[in-house]
């Protein structure tokens, strides 16, 4: 993954007039924004104004401030990011969910064939955008887990559980989150949600910590159809990406950090 050193502000993305669409050919763009920072009330109101009526209702229903801010930044990030690739105002995007709950862009006259996926966790939101390529992204806050073994037995394949148990205790938590984020990114890219049995496919990490998909039966497809990546987004956040491979070479994955409240 290539880190773009350019400085971006979410307020600039959300409020700047429309610009020529940014090229996406042979690339996947990952956008990250931290939410555990001091924020500006005026800026918050401008972000709320980019949301749809239903999103504003959902924003107001959150009981806890942290969840409310994560939701606001996440959905503002999606809308403003998509507008970098099309001559559409952030507030004018429309979305619908497939039968398994994955949000998609409502297509119409002039709407580009963009694909995107969104994830948010404590302190961080992430959005990935591609040009027609199935994509999934997951970020997780790496908090300590007292029930790590129980969670692994419910969500991981036998191979993943065996590998996890074989590691020294001090390495198990990091590997747990590597598997967890990879599996989440993959099922989101497939668009099938939890109808895809988590225990019936596996990920492994080679000697260079590069991930690979090990089992897809009886889920259809082949492991070679998928490009996957695992990365440490911040000191406390794990990030994983899954992309469906086409006939060309792997996509170049470019990561950009956004200042949420600048």
Fold and architecture overview:
The strands form 4 sheets. Strands 1-12-2-6-5 form a 5-stranded mixed sheet. The radius of gyration is 18 Å and the shape is globular. It starts with a strand and ends with a strand. It has 7 helices and 12 strands. With 262 residues, it is α+β, with helices and mostly antiparallel strands. The model has no long low-confidence stretch (mean pLDDT 90). It folds into 2 domains: 2-133 and 247-259, Ribosomal Protein L22, Chain A; 141-237, Alpha-Beta Complex (Ribosomal Protein L22, Chain A).
Q: Any chance you could write out the topology, listing elements then pairs?
A:
Layout: E1 2-9, H1 10-15, E2 27-34, H2 41-48, H3 53-61, H4 65-82, E3 95-97, E4 103-105, E5 114-121, E6 124-131, E7 135-141, H5 148-155, H6 158-166, H7 169-190, E8 202-205, E9 211-215, E10 226-234, E11 237-244, E12 252-259
Parallel strand pairs: 1-12, 2-12
Antiparallel strand pairs: 2-6, 3-4, 5-6, 7-11, 8-9, 10-11
Helix pairs in contact: 3-4
Defining key terms:
Ribosomal Protein L22, Chain A; 262 residues; 30% strand; five-stranded mixed beta sheet; 2 domains; 7 helices; three-stranded antiparallel beta sheet; alpha+beta
């Amino acid at each position: 993954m290539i880190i773009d050193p350019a400085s971006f502000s979410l307020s600039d993305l959300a409020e700047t007039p429309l610009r020529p669409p940014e090229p996406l050919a042979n690339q996947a763009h990952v956008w990250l924004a931290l939410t555990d920072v001091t924020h500006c009330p005026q800026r918050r109101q401008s972000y709320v104004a980019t949301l749809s009526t239903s999103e504003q209702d959902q924003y107001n229903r959150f009981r806890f401030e942290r969840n409310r801010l994560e939701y606001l930044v996440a959905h503002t990030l999606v809308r403003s990011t998509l507008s970098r690739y099309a001559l559409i105002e952030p507030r004018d995007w429309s979305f619908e969910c497939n039968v398994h709950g994955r949000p998609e862009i409502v297509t119409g006259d002039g709407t580009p064939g963009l694909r995107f996926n969104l994830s948010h966790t404590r302190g961080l939101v992430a959005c990935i955008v591609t040009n027609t390529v199935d994509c999934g992204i997951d970020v997780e806050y790496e908090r300590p887990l007292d029930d790590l073994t129980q969670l692994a037995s419910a969500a991981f394949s036998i191979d993943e559980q065996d590998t996890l148990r074989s590691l020294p205790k001090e390495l198990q938590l990091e590997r747990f989150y590597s598997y967890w984020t990879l599996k989440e990114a993959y099922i989101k890219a497939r668009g099938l949600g939890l109808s895809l049995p988590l225990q019936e496919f596996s990920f492994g990490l080679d000697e260079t910590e590069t991930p690979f998909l090990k089992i897809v039966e009886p889920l259809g497809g082949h492991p070679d159809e998928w490009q996957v990546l695992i990365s440490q987004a911040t000191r406390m956040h794990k990030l994983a990406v899954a992309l469906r491979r086409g006939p060309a070479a792997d996509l170049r994955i470019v990561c950009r950090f956004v200042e949420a409240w600048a």
